[in-house]
Design goal:
Helix 1 packs antiparallel against helix 2. The longest helix is centred in the first third of the chain and has 74 residues. The protein is mainly alpha-helical and about 150 residues long. About 80% of the residues lie in helices and about 0% in strands.
Amino acid sequence: MGFIFSKSINENMKNQQEFMLMNARLQLERQLIMQNEMRERQMAMQVAWSREFIKYFGTFFGIAAISLTAGAIKKKKPAFLFPIVPLSFVLTYQYDLGYGTLLQRMKGEAENVLEREKSKLQLPKGMITFESLEKARKEQSKFFIDK
């Protein structure tokens, strides 16, 4: 009788552990999907911001380029054209981010760093651990009572 009862408890415990493992896996999958969704939305916002910025900066750049060119011709001073150079770099960068391949190139470079330059990604003092967090919390807490 005791053997049958303990066998039933062991099966229930095993079933419960499998259920908990499946539940933990499902929760982890949901968290990963949610984090990826958030990352994609942030990237989409960055691209949209860049495209919107190009509209305003492009207008400013066009007006500035025409005005500076007209001023350089009128005053016969080519130095008026120099501000166009840095402004064109900003415009080109934003255009590449919004409509070009900058994000793909950045992704490729990031993958290169992850694969070949792992040492550059190390945190100072190593990974954060539960013990280090608890130590810092205890040092900062005014009301900590050690049991």
